Amino acid sequence: MRAWLNCLCFNFWVWLLFLLCLSPNFRGILEGKASPTSSPRIKPSYSFGRAFLGLDKCNACIGTSICKKFFKEEIRFDSWLSSHLKLPPNYLPCYSGNYTDDTKSWRPVEISRLMTKYQHDQSDKRICISLTFAKTCSIERALWKTERFQKWLKAKRLTLDLVQGLSTPLLRCPSQRLLDRIVRRYAEVADAGSIFMDHFSDRDKLRLLYTLSVNTHPIILQIFPEAEGWPFPKYLGSCGRLIVNTNTRPLKEFYSVSLDVAADLVLQLLATINFMTNNDLNYYFYFTHVDADTFGVFTNGYLFIRDASRLGIIDLQEGTALMEHQQEHTDIFSCLAMDCQSVFPSCNSIKHTQSLVMVCKEILPKLLKDKFLLSIQEEIDSALAICADSSLAQKEVISAAQKLVEILKPFQPCHSHFAYRYPDCKYNAK
Questions:
Q1: Is the pTM of this model over 0.90?
Q2: What pLDDT, on the 0 to 100 scale, is given for residue 27?
């Protein structure tokens, strides 16, 4: 009897040892590795919900070119640097973040949505009700069945009839040359260098159509890149309904700066407006609206256009297809944005000084207010009043802007503080 009990106990311990060996924690101890459950320095797990990124709505989204960096934690929200280590609220329109290519050096980026989460939700609801008569639906499937997208599926080239009726400013007065540029430089597909869409999958076409319908800011960043001298932030990619570009400070943060910085920013702003109306590609860029967030400043002091969503383009070289009968071609894609009911002027009524007048009225007074001696301030205020008057002849408005440049030029110092033009200005002075 005792022999039988000893055998039973021996077998019990053998089986217990066998089961322990199967345990990953036990194997880790044997191999000299700390158990994940016992380590106080566990790396937190970040969970990107598909809903937060907007991937659950793809391919009614912007793209997926930068998703891997999000999931590999090579793009991090600033909130990840806090003790809570959690994703920021999903209702914000934009977020500050950090981006790396080597996991060692990080640089600041801006992560933003085409619309706020609420606006996206309202837009999605409108799609479902209009196309399926239900409050919720598969957004992609609903848009896929539309007459417009069925035409896109069959198209080999992006032509004027395919964008007719879209309400975004970029496509109010399009030319075939502009549409070809969009296809050639669309960064969410492999670059084929072709004006034909043979290398576009059906899903690529839906993403492009959706972006062109909602907000063309990322498209403008792609087709007029910073690397070629255009005054826009660099487009780094998109994931779902979030886009990532180089980080900036909005111009409104500079309203109370010193006299020399204000003079420099105003001169840059006037030069930018002039460049957008007179450039080698013969595209005339005009704003339909400007506010405190339209422009931004890089860390080196260089000013650029931070929000390109309100930019329209007229092709001075090829001419523009006048979209005078937009209402005859409207559909669900004509009203995916919240402000889709906005009335835009006809293409041939847009003045060459439209953007200049807006900037002189809305931005420059806030930068130049009460910063100069009384006599100089009066000259500046007088020139601003003329420059901001849309009822005056274009020649008068341009002359007033040139007068501002003459007044402010002596206040633009050559100093290392203005890194974007130093030491070039020192060399030019010599």
A1: no
A2: 41
